[in-house]
Design brief:
mainly beta, Cyclophilin, seven-stranded mixed barrel, six-stranded antiparallel beta sheet, 3 helices, 20 strands, PxpC, nucleotide-binding
Length: 282
């Protein structure tokens, strides 16, 4: 078990999400950065879809009530165990009573904590991903308790690590594909999309990222149609909205672009004021 001494800014349990329930209006959810989460799980020997803790901007303080192994990947948040600094992208042995905490955010925006066997929180519709109205909690809470596998043998010399390319944290390139309504755009609008830099607004979260700059929009409105994580909508005002993992399942704005998984991973590590540009996948 893990006791949550402090919850941090926004930390939640996520796996790869709920697939096959969108026709009921259930969002996919799941980890924002699949790449970082998969690396964390690989380090502790989990299947890549195992549930991890997604930590946004500032980290929690966690006390481990039993032995386990952990790995932290993604954003650099200066983690420590019992006050001793540890590094990302390494598998570390944790003993009963150890306390994991986080410091200042240095790069990226979201990091991932994997534990041996994955987090064992409640599974709903085939996923442990936290989402309001679907699971009892939408994020971890102070003084809460998180179930993990019990009885993991600790190897004092277990310090395996991986060399991980985290340069995508700093990249402004967001990889995209044409969306269903892309062909309705004029050449001028297309050029604007691919030659402009866009700034992430303060309206950004697990549901979607809004961009400050606009693209003139004279497109006809469409019927409400399916959307998925990574769909880029162009609103009547010209504002662009990039849907993320907790997005709704349908929308009524033209779907002009679609982020690839790589594009979503990169965007997930950005925050307010960061600039991006769209790059069409070759």
């Amino acid at each position: 078990m893990i006791k949550v001494l402090n919850a941090g800014f926004y930390s939640c349990i996520q796996d790869f999400g709920r697939i096959g329930y969108q026709h009921y209006g259930v969002p996919v959810s799941g980890v924002m950065d699949k790449r970082a989460a998969s690396v964390a799980n690989a380090l502790v020997g989990n299947e890549k879809r195992a549930a991890v803790m997604e930590i946004t901007m500032s980290g929690p303080k966690l006390k481990f009530e039993n032995n386990t192994t952990i790995a932290i990947t993604g954003a650099i948040m200066n983690p420590s165990v019992n006050g001793k600094p540890i590094t990302n992208n390494k598998c570390l042995s944790i003993k009963q009573g150890d306390v994991l905490s986080f410091g200042r955010l240095e790069s990226g925006f979201r990091c991932y904590l994997a534990v041996s066997g994955g987090f064992q929180t409640q599974e709903v519709l085939g996923s442990r991903s936290m989402y309001k109205t679907i699971t009892p909690f939408q994020s971890i809470e102070k003084q809460g308790v998180l179930k993990i596998n019990f009885g993991i043998r600790v190897n004092e010399q277990r310090f395996s690590g991986l060399r991980v390319d985290d340069t995508y944290f700093e990249s402004s390139d967001i990889e995209v594909l044409p969306g269903p309504e892309f062909t309705f755009l004029s050449e001028v609008q297309k050029e604007k999309l691919f030659t402009s830099k866009f700034t992430i607004s303060k309206e950004n979260n697990r549901m979607g990222y809004q961009l400050n700059e606009t693209v003139a929009n004279d497109l006809k409105q469409i019927l409400t149609s399916p959307v998925i994580p990574g769909t880029v909508q162009l609103t009547p005002s010209g504002k662009l909205i990039i849907l993320m993992r907790d997005c709704q399942t349908t929308g009524g704005y033209p779907r002009v672009l679609q982020l690839t998984d790589s594009g979503i991973n990169t965007l997930a590590q950005k925050y307010t004021g960061k600039t991006i540009n769209f790059r069409l996948k070759a």
